[in-house]
Design goal:
- Strands 3-2-1-4-5-7-6 form a 7-stranded mixed sheet, sandwiched between helices.
- By secondary structure, the protein is an alpha/beta fold.
- It has one domain: Rossmann fold (3-Layer(aba) Sandwich), CATH 3.40.50.150.
- It contains 5 helices and 7 strands, in the order H-H-E-E-H-E-E-H-E-H-E-E.
């Protein structure tokens, strides 16, 4: 991934539409999943400007990882238990395990997306959930198909905004 490209895009407002109401449907769907639990830990991979933090509560530990320091510096939410890290998702290392690991429209920007996904599933706590939000386009069907074929217990929900734009939200649970 090219850090300078992402920094320029955040600096020039390329991703500012993500804060608009039409995008909120997918944030709300993810928040409904994580807010069922209290005092949970979250690893948000490709967090951007941490818009998801406006929808979640009761977490004990939130770690947001993004390649763009501009995005990280633009985060409007702060507080106890929030840690923001400027790093590529593929190279980020952690010894911690999490209750929720989130790829909110970030998986398909990775070079080795399936390998990365499989590695992060191992970072879930027992009973943890990996949540993916994938823009529902023909180009992204391969990601959805791979995930559903690889993780047979995965659950999907399709959310649609008022303009008919769809996201597939996939939950992969770790039982062991």
């Amino acid at each position: 991934m090219d850090r300078s490209k992402w920094n320029n895009e955040f600096k020039n407002g390329r991703w500012s539409y993500l804060k608009e109401e039409d995008e909120s449907i997918r944030y709300i769907e993810i928040a409904n999943i994580v807010n069922e639990k209290e005092f949970y830990s979250i690893l948000d991979l490709g967090c951007g400007e941490c818009i998801l933090l406006n929808y979640i509560y009761r977490y004990s530990n939130y770690v947001g990882v993004d390649i763009s320091e501009i995005a990280i510096n633009n985060v409007a939410v702060n507080g106890d238990g929030i840690k923001l890290i400027c790093s590529e998702i593929e190279t980020y290392q952690t010894s911690l395990k999490y209750d929720f690991i989130i790829f909110n429209e970030s998986l398909y920007y990775l070079k080795n997306s399936f390998l990365v996904l499989n590695n992060y599933v191992k970072k879930l706590n027992r009973g943890g959930k990996l949540i993916l939000s994938i823009f529902n386009t023909q180009d992204n069907k391969m990601y959805i198909t791979y995930i559903l074929n690889t993780y047979k217990s995965a659950k999907t929900t399709i959310v649609k905004n008022r303009n008919g734009i769809e996201w597939v939200v996939i939950i992969i649970g770790r039982k062991f």
